[in-house]
Amino acid sequence: MELQILDSKTKQKLCTLERISSNTTIDSIKEIYQRKFPNYYPERQSFKSSPKGKLLKGSETLSELNLGAEGVLYFKDLGPQVGWSTVFYCEYTGPLFVYLLFYFRLPYIYDSKFAFTSSPDDVVHLAAICHSFHYMKRVLETKFVHRFSHGTMPIKNLFRNCSYYWSFAAWMAYYINHPLYTPATFGTMQICSGLAVFVLCELGNLSIHLAFRSLRPSGSTQRKIPTATGNPFTLLFNFVSCPNYTYEFGSWVGFAVMTQTLPVFIFAFVGFGQMAIWALAKHRNYKKEFSNYPRSRKAILPIVL
Amino acid sequence: MTAPQTTRKQSPIAQAWLIMYNVAMTAGWLVIGLGIVNHFYKHRTHKGLYRQVEKQLLFFQTAAIFEIIHAATGIVRSNVMLTTMQVFSRVGIVWGVIQPVAQVHNTEGIPMLMVAWTITEIIRYLYYTFMLLGTTPYIVVWLRYSLFTVLYPLGVSGELLSIYNSLKPVRDSQMYSLFLPNQLNFSIDYHIVLIGTIPFYFIFFPQLYFHMFAQRKKLWDLDLRLLPRKQTDSSILDYLIHVVQPIRNNCMQCEKMKQCCVYGFYSSIVFLRKKMKYDILD
């Protein structure tokens, strides 16, 4: 059949693809389209069967779409794309470096007499270790643990995400490493409990990521309800759909209590807000997909949300 | 400022409330307006003006917060985010810059923003009241969509001037600020925060200003009886076209036509003329 490609906004005809068989997938269409317009790599292309319809999945074939004899597909350019891994590496290595700039008190950040000095408080050194550990863990997870179902995202997300992580890292680091930093009001007890919560939640977060990875072996497309494994940290699955977000929030709260720094609390809550939105969406999708999804489970906070 | 309220299938309670609200706000700003006029008549100076109208201004400007609730509950068809930004910027100036900083009260920015705000708000709330009642006199519509061209820049200038005048007193008094060391390990310098708001004026003012122009054009396009289309060739643009026409005819034979600025000038006038379907320049 003949396939006409129109622009989804202007409805102008972009090109006509000839001799397309009806069991061609959208992925193949994208490859053919790239041969005609070399600038548009497949990740940047999106097709819809109606101008305001949903984006078509790569595996759908033309026959499934009921296009009829004169096939028309609507094309939308998603803009320059960048890989998810690339974005994660950028947004996570930034805070590693940025925090250390403040930790080592590079010149021009604080008063010149404090340049390259070291804080007398132990908790400041502890905080640097914790913060760096957190982001190092994230970088390693990106390399070895995470499996991404989407390949790419629009490039403006890279700038937006990096701004978020890097700015907050700088803001937190500025106060924790400040020469006028005040350690915890309740002393060692507060620092230790904050540290304990942080460590436990980091381990919990890692456990959940590993559990997600083993939930679906690579290559398989089978979707399963996540459940607790042998690892006790995964027991949180019995209470929430996205325990990784719960643990993440817990880590930052622990870090905030340990350092007793308001910007860290603000970071924890802003992060929670975003993660709650994601968790609620995931929770809704789980419930829609699995009729036997456990009813007592919540999205991100046990019992509450 | 925001899109006009519409009276589609609305609950009578909502309608009654909105009418009462808009009437009350119109009356309130009229009182403020009278206060301003009275002050200038008696004293001929802007000094002491703020103190004269302070209580009414604080009350009625703060009452604008209701409009956010109206937009959020849907009884008014306005964008919630836009309304919130506009109301908060006003309330922020009043409670964050003018009211707490006494040194600003007798500066030049105050009468500027008072006049701009008062006239704008009286007309705006009057307009909404009439829209709710069903019949809107042409004069009110015309005032709302014409006076903003002068009042909006006047108001913004007054606000910027007031912020500028508040900087030194704020820095000296260290008001609304927190410095290290403290238990929260946090610091905020209100003086810097105020400086930080200034760029936003320059970012948002053009957008909002031209948004009003677009609203105005839409209005004229929608309702032909508001402004009849001129039949005669009497606008400034037509006159310019008339003048440039002979030169343009020469241009058509010239090889370098597309690169030439004379032809460019002519084309832009023709383009402008086409865009402004109704002669407002007359």
Automatic annotation (TrEMBL), chain B:
Which reaction equation describes what this protein catalyses? a very-long-chain (3R)-3-hydroxyacyl-CoA = a very-long-chain (2E)-enoyl-CoA + H2O; (3R)-hydroxyhexadecanoyl-CoA = (2E)-hexadecenoyl-CoA + H2O
CC per GO annotation:
endoplasmic reticulum membrane
Which compartments does it reside in? Endoplasmic reticulum membrane; Membrane
The pathway this protein participates in, as annotated, is:
Lipid metabolism; fatty acid biosynthesis
State if Endoplasmic reticulum is listed as a keyword. Answer: yes
Subcellular location, principal: endoplasmic reticulum
Keyword list (alphabetical) reads: Endoplasmic reticulum, Fatty acid biosynthesis, Fatty acid metabolism, Lipid biosynthesis, Lipid metabolism, Lyase, Membrane, Transmembrane, Transmembrane helix
Q: What is its EC number?
A: 4.2.1.134
- What stretches pass through the bilayer? 16-37, 57-75, 87-104, 125-145, 190-210
BP-aspect Gene Ontology terms: fatty acid elongation; sphingolipid biosynthetic process; very long-chain fatty acid biosynthetic process
Entry's Pfam families? PTPLA
Membrane topology designation: Multi-pass membrane protein
Lipid metabolism recorded as keyword: yes
Q: What class of enzyme is it?
A: lyase
From the UniProt record, which GO molecular function terms apply? very-long-chain (3R)-3-hydroxyacyl-CoA dehydratase activity
Q: Tell me, what does this protein do in biology? A: Catalyzes the third of the four reactions of the long-chain fatty acids elongation cycle. This endoplasmic reticulum-bound enzymatic process, allows the addition of two carbons to the chain of long- and very long-chain fatty acids/VLCFAs per cycle. This enzyme catalyzes the dehydration of the 3-hydroxyacyl-CoA intermediate into trans-2,3-enoyl-CoA, within each cycle of fatty acid elongation. Thereby, it participates to the production of VLCFAs of different chain lengths that are involved in multiple biological processes as precursors of membrane lipids and lipid mediators.
| Family, similarity comment | Belongs to the very long-chain fatty acids dehydratase HACD family.
Q: What is this protein called?
A: Very-long-chain (3R)-3-hydroxyacyl-CoA dehydratase
In its UniProt entry, the species of origin is given as Phallusia mammillata
